[in-house]
User: Fold these one by one.
Assistant:
Number 1:
Amino acid sequence: MSERGLRGPAAAPPYEVGTFVDGDTELAYEVHGTGDRVLVFLHGILLDANMNRRLAVDLAAAGNRVVLLDLPGHGRSAKPRQASAHRMDSYAGHVVALLDHLDIDRAVVGGVSLGANVGLMVAARAPERVQGLVVEMPVLEWAVPAAAVTFVPMLLAVHFARSAVRVAAQLVRRLPRSGIGPLDSVINSLANDPVETAAVLHGILAGPIAPTVAERRAMTMPALVIGHRVDRVHPFADAEQLSRRLPDATLVEATSVLELRFRPERLTGEISAFLDRAWAARRPRRRAG
């Protein structure tokens, strides 16, 4: 189902808000802009569509249709409490289901951090649906030690200090939202029930994190890879190595994860130019049967 109607400038709610059911999971999405040039862009771990809304509005103004999906356990989507619902390959399947739901034959797919890895997984599992990739801060081989140091303690905390975390989450739910997308995304994350957070972390850590090196080398669609040198969970070496392994990739260095959220003009311009190039190589529609 969806609500339609143009609702004003960038700070207003999106042009289209909708939900659909894939399997037994209800998923929420929002659409900015119209047309055949579709970008599906995904959020980071435990965050939601709020973090990428400014990017979606800006790219829609440049003639693109941008779809932001809340993955299971995130944002307005259902929050399954089974770790098996949060495997990276399962998330990729939901992205393909979103394309089917919106009757989109092909899209440029990608996201930030977790979303970047899910985009890569979509390209590995359903390359015929992927016109191009926008991969911001992928979490690959060089990130493994820092990711373990960051997320394993979080998983232990939500398991063994559940009561305290639940009380804190209840307090956070009472906080007013700021209207600043990335900040609201963090607040929403802190408001999640610890059981739901534990399921997300457990599922992602237990399942495949990214396509294999061989699968990455087989991704022939154009790709834009964005990396930065600021934190160890998203080492620049991962972005640099990925750009070398993908057959048709361009590497862009960001100052930090904050650049695209708070000083977005340069990187939005890079993404917009990349989308022009990706859609200039448009392939024919799939044929049924």
Number 2:
Amino acid sequence: MLDLLFFLPIAGAILLFLLPQRVARPVAFAVALLTLVVSCVLIPSAFSAGGSYGLLTSVTWVQAWGIHWALGLDGLSLVLTILTTLITTVAIAWTPSRDRTYYVLFLLLEAFSLGTFLAADLFMFYVFWEAMIIPAYLLIAGYGGQRRARAALKFLIYSLAPSLLMLVAIVGLGYEAFLQLGHWSFSLMALRHLVLPVGVQMWVFAGFAVAFLVKIPVFPFHSWMPDAYAEAPAPVTAMLSAVLSKTALYGFLRIALPLMPVAAHRFAPALAVLALISILYGAIVALAQRDGKLVIGYSSLSHLGLVLLGIAALSYTGLEGAVLQMVNHGIYIAALFLLFGVVEERLGTRDLQGMGGLEARGPILAGLFLVAVLTALGLPGLQGFAGEITVLSGIYLVHPVWAWIAVVSVILAAAYFIRLFQKVAHGTAPTEGHEGKRPEIGGVQIALVAPLILLMFVLGFYPNPVPRAVSRPLKSVTQTVGVATTPRPAATSEVAGK
């Protein structure tokens, strides 16, 4: 079933080349929807007894080097797999296009993203990690704005260079397996049994951390983000922020922390400093932006910094809150980018100074955008609040000062998101070039964004499914790293109650 989940989008991409251009969109949507269904069908398998993975498939690929085609599914990879298939399904159908290549690249991006979350072999993780870059680069370069070539090249350089450090770290782990086990191995389960010298842990952790920090992105490794987010089409931007950034955060939880626990403790303060800077920097820059799309982009930088801070706290509640916020962020940030793309199309600009009047001329679009904005700024009762309060609780239990600094970003988030909605929805509507045009969202787009809006309410009032799903994997991580493993039911119940 895991092989089916991975190969479905690839098979769909191949099929598109055999069909007429006019059916590319419905076929791509059908393939993405089927992949979403398969990911949901696998939910019981992720929690089956035995082993660290509920479901595992492994076939020897390169025997001499100990490389296996290995895919595994547990609660942690499950929630991010479902997030990936959901966002891809919505994004593929969001913007009508007769370009077959556009949908082929989208399906390939989905497949390689799924491979990254499912990889149970470190070498396969690297293959999928690198493969993700190709369709993302081509989508930006081929379908972005006027400066798309520069943005795509910057994205490519920033993605490839740190990955070389990660490759060196992976080979180093394989060599350590050869020294201790007598054979090369990149299996995540086998590598967990290695006793790595502290020096080896430090440089291997650093190699992974640099690659992950660039992909999240985190200050000062974020320079590719403004160009890529600004120039990419709205569905592509949604994938970059909602899915690709999560592959890096997932890498910390799946690889860096459990395989290098001593290094994790020693690097935690440095990661926390970078996270805090990203939290405040992203919020302040978002507040100063005139480009509405970049307001959302820098807000994502700030919110992902909070997730990294939860991981750096190395407490069970912090890790639990980080995963919950990863899922929540993926849902509301995708909705924000997609809906703002409609706003830009209807009003003809991204400049907040030239916007206004959407509430009167497009009340449904304005209402949907308002729900996404309120979710992102952490309004109680919506999913953004559940994630923020859990991760802040986990940080406060270990490092209260970090939590108080991070709380400042919550205040700033209210300021820049309220400003964003006020500029878009209120004031006087621009009319030049748009006379007689009603800037209302279409029925198909309402149907596509409806599941995301519904999840904002459902996971806001009842966030427990995500913490329950990731409980066993996070306990395993915390046992290895050496922090408290007992979940804090009081904090979870308080979030659920609110």
Number 3:
Amino acid sequence: MEKADQTIGIRIPKSIGQRLDTLAKRTGRTKTFYIREAILEHLDDLEDIYFAEKVLQRVRSGEEPISSLDEVEHRLGLED
């Protein structure tokens, strides 16, 4: 079961706040709606980037095993 929504406070540049104000007024939605939508839309991408960077660091340091395409094809029985 999902927990109740959380409330957080953020500081944003004045120019972004003005853009949100304009968007909210023109569309009849709240600034909170658009802030929430932006977070929900981009959080997956931010997580993917963060985790990919961590894996890349491990690959570069030799901590993460890597395989060539030929090795993967062989393991999966996909050789010609």
